[in-house]
Amino acid sequence: MAKFLTCITLSGGRKLNFILDKGKRRNAVLAINEGRLTVRVPERFDPAQIRTFIEQHIEWIDLNLEKSAKHSGLPVTFEDGEEIRLLGQKAIITAVPSDRYFKPRFEDGKLLIAVCGSVDHEYMVRQIQTYIVELANREITESMQRLTALMGLFPKKITVKDLSASWGRCSSNGTISINYKVAAYSKAHIDYVCIHELAHLVHMDHSADFWKLVERYCPDWKKIRGSMRSDNDEE
């Protein structure tokens, strides 16, 4: 079974990014989560069949991608002018013609991407994704350093990664993983996710005692959690 991020050119020249998931299944299905499309197809499907399947459902895809992206704040098209959210603030992806490369940076409500010559879509995707991952690592690291000291709880290991169905995970051996996509949310949201997972070092369930511990360090956890639950949930 193969699962990877790819891009396809549709009729009319439009490019669409999606996660292709090939596996042992009878039918092709679509799924959208956090503003990202996943296309699950049988192993026998060739590129032409995949393209046809997507084009047959393009209206549904466009409608639901827009709904999901508005809530998650994550990039969908990765194109110049797309509105996303970084640390809870609106950011417009902005391609900046430049003879010299500079790392993507956020200034005055814009995520600036250096472009030499024509705008290459794959380049834009790499630059934006790298920026978001680095932002997430920096903010999660800062939150964890501060909160572990405050709570007196220290995980065995902390990783920042792409979690498909949760904002965070805490394993029984004390390893915590945080979804890099929390970078779209405010610092208070990031703190909440970290507090939630640190609390699991004491309570591996979601018992009343667990929530009391969370509330001790995040009094507004119900409001914050409610604003994130339609994207992902915590474990």
From TrEMBL:
<dbReference type="InterPro" id="IPR053136">
    <property type="entry name" value="UTP_pyrophosphatase-like"/>
</dbReference>
<protein>
    <recommendedName>
        <fullName>YgjP-like metallopeptidase domain-containing protein</fullName>
    </recommendedName>
</protein>
<feature type="domain" description="YgjP-like metallopeptidase">
    <location>
        <begin position="26"/>
        <end position="229"/>
    </location>
</feature>
<dbReference type="InterPro" id="IPR002725">
    <property type="entry name" value="YgjP-like_metallopeptidase"/>
</dbReference>
<dbReference type="Pfam" id="PF01863">
    <property type="entry name" value="YgjP-like"/>
</dbReference>
